[in-house]
Amino acid sequence: MIFSRRRTLPLFIPDIVINSDSISYSEVVKFLGIFIDSKLSGKPHFTHVITKCRRALNIMSALAGVWWGAHPQHLMMIFKGIIRSNIDYGCQIFQLSGNLTIFEKLQRLQYKAIRIDYGYRHSTPINVLLDEAKEPPLHYRFNYLTAKLVLKNIAQEFSPVTIGLDELIPLARSPRNCEKACKIIPSFRYCHAIIGKTSKIHHTVSLPVFSHSFLSLIHNIQYTPLLFHSDIQNVNSLFLECTKDLRKDAITFYTDGSKDDSGFVSQRRYIFARIKDPGHAQIAYGDHHFLC
Predict the structure, then answer these.
(1) Pick from 43, 72, 204, 248: CA 20 to 30 A from residue 264's CA?
(2) Domain boundary among 135, 168, 187
(3) Its domain of life (predicted)?
(4) Which domain range does residue 111 map to?
């Protein structure tokens, strides 16, 4: 494969032979589940994704129904596991701003899947679909996944992704080249935005969760004495007594401002969550949510 953005390929294509095996020229190569083309446009990859997702939509259409079909929550689980996962895979590599036709097809797949899940009509507005399904638009989700990937790799020492992005920075020193690189490579856009701020990010050789022992991640607190204790006034002291072994040599954070000298508490800390049980839920289901 020869990577080039020219419309015509060079007349002479060299022959590559490895261990007496000739490597033939190909315009599209599949690597780690991503179809890479010679122009790095991403069209072959997303064309394959669209075809694959349309087959999954046929499965969802067969499972959906007004009276006999699966519950919308179960259909949304199928959508997130089969369709949305395929759409998200590779969004950090290819830029879809120049492929508006393909991006619109991906959006229509998302909208059609939500209509099938909830039984909406074609006249239902798009913003209503996304709000009821609690799904963000694709471009917001792509930006979120790209930023998450960049920050995760920057926090990890000797990450190949970070090394590759750092090698692009000297090539994009001029404003024109930098603007062009940010448009072509989504990951580079976020990497360029946080240049000079990486010192404030905590760096580890491996993931931070693996820097501690496995037993430290498992808590074994017996809540039975707290639930069945008759004296409600002594619940706080009883809780401190049950958790004293876990709090030994530990740092305690008070997020409500109760231990602050000024006693100031931000209003944004008070978040009231309302949970609506599904229509098929039983009374025990609601009691479980109330206790948790």
Answers:
(1) 248
(2) 135
(3) Eukaryota
(4) 16-135
